[in-house]
Design a protein that fits this description.
This protein is α+β, with helices and mostly antiparallel strands. The chain has a single domain, classed as Orthogonal Bundle (Arc Repressor Mutant, subunit A). 51% of the residues lie in helices and 16% in strands. It has a four-stranded mixed sheet, covered by helices on one side. The two termini are 14 Å apart.
């Protein structure tokens, strides 16, 4: 599965790029918990899906982590993927890269970039919670 194409399809299907709304529509429960180094994780137990987010993250970072974990729920539904921490966030692991690409594509759709063409991609990324370190994923995906 191509994470970019899946993100575009999911956004169109649910008519939103908001990962919290998409999670709700997909009956994925989003919970907030205090966690020291863990940003969030996705878990499926007895067919019930949950995204657990660190309640101490900024709103923008919670949005990105929710989109990342939503990516796992769609792209890797049957895999046991590790939790996202400040240490694993920049992992080069295939599944983490796919979830990050999904999150970037969901939160920074091409139409949004065109609509605000007078703003830099860094400004737009910051406005929707995409860390600047992941902007290159958007640039790489658009080259394909």
């Amino acid at each position: 599965m191509n994470p970019r194409e899946v993100a575009i399809e999911i956004a169109a299907r649910y008519d939103t790029n908001n990962p919290f709304e998409i999670a709700r529509e997909r009956n994925i429960k989003v919970l907030y918990e205090p966690m020291k180094t863990t940003f969030g994780f996705y878990v499926r137990y007895r067919r019930i899906q949950h995204i657990i987010l660190n309640n101490e993250l900024s709103e923008g970072m919670q949005r990105f982590v929710c989109a990342h974990e939503l990516g796992h729920s769609i792209l890797h539904a049957n895999l046991n993927v590790p939790k996202l921490t400040k240490y694993t966030m920049f992992s080069r692991d295939k599944f983490e890269m796919q979830a990050n690409t999904f999150a970037v594509e969901l939160l920074l759709p091409d139409g949004f970039l065109r609509e605000y063409a007078d703003c830099s991609i860094y400004q737009l990324a910051a406005s929707v919670g995409v860390p600047k370190e992941f902007i290159e994923l958007k640039r790489c995906a658009n080259r394909v």
